[in-house]
Structure to design on (299 residues):
């Protein structure tokens, strides 16, 4: 049996605070503020044929998240964008995943961290589809999580912040142990929110319904797929959705940088059949990133 490759022991380079460093040398101290107090924000990006999809939007959100966590970032958006491509090139990656992150260092320990250094890093690696091809084609199964997305008054819900993912990890672990691929999270009001790392959509009588992102991320892939759906002429409705309304849906799918467009066939007691809308939007999204690939190759 092959031992899985760990993320700390790899060949290659990581961009760290303005320079490429050997992968194994990109380390932080055990007393790093981010490890103890979750003062870290990040992004997930995909490169298709060497072109990073929606890079400007991802970097804009990364810096916005840092601002919400009271971090003054020592690099501009352009510097971070340039570093992303520099990191891809240094690792000879064409189709892959990128993880930019910003965090407080180990200069100060305690809840306050006014004097802690703000660090920025970008790593990249080859990462295929988040779910297996078989699961994507026939639809994945989600368990309904016991954990709920917090109210905007309780957390910086518009930030892609590391601390907000603790309940996602707990939810996904519980779901996987029960034989599911992922979990659906409700929000503090009991309304449908999102999966652990992706937004959710439902098809009800030919119309596409999706929860209003007022306490969770309005995903970049989510916005992309909404635009694709409207271009196709589908009626798209953003609204509060209660769990019992899932019984009315014929189709369901997730969207995200890692998940791309992934059909769902089951959420708890509710069943769906991936159909025309799922197939159409999967194909449209693949074509969109395919056009990027063709444009990149032509360049």
């Amino acid at each position: 049996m092959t031992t899985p490759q760990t993320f700390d022991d790899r060949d290659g380079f990581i961009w760290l605070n303005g320079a490429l460093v050997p992968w194994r040398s990109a380390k932080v101290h055990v007393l790093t503020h981010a490890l103890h107090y979750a003062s870290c924000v990040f992004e997930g990006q995909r490169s298709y044929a060497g072109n990073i999809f929606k890079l400007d939007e991802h970097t804009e959100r990364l810096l916005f998240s840092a601002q919400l966590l009271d971090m003054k970032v020592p690099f501009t958006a352009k510097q971070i964008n340039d570093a992303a491509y520099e990191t891809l090139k240094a690792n000879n990656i064409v189709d892959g995943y990128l993880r930019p992150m910003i965090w407080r260092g180990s200069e100060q320990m305690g809840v306050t961290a006014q004097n802690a250094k703000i660090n920025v890093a970008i790593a990249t690696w080859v990462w295929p589809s988040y779910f297996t091809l078989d699961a994507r084609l026939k639809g994945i199964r989600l368990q309904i999580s016991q954990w709920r997305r917090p109210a905007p008054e309780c957390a910086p819900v518009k930030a892609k912040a590391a601390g907000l993912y603790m309940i996602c990890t707990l939810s996904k672990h519980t779901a996987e142990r029960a034989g599911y691929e992922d979990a659906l999270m409700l929000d503090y009001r009991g309304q449908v929110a999102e999966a652990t790392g992706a937004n959710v959509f439902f098809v009800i009588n030919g119309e596409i319904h999706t929860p209003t992102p007022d306490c969770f991320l309005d995903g970049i892939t989510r916005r992309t797929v909404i635009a694709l759906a409207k271009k196709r002429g589908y009626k798209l409705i953003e609204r509060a959705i209660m769990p019992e309304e899932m019984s009315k849906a014929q189709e369901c799918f997730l969207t995200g940088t890692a998940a791309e467009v992934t059909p769902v066939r089951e959420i708890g007691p509710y069943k769906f059949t991936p159909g025309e809308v799922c197939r159409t939007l999967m194909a449209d999204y693949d074509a969109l990133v395919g056009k990027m690939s063709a444009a990149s190759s032509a360049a």
Notes: The radius of gyration is 20 Å. Residues 133-290 form a domain with the D-amino Acid Aminotransferase; Chain A, domain 2 fold (CATH 3.20.10.10). The chain has two domains: 13-125, 133-290.
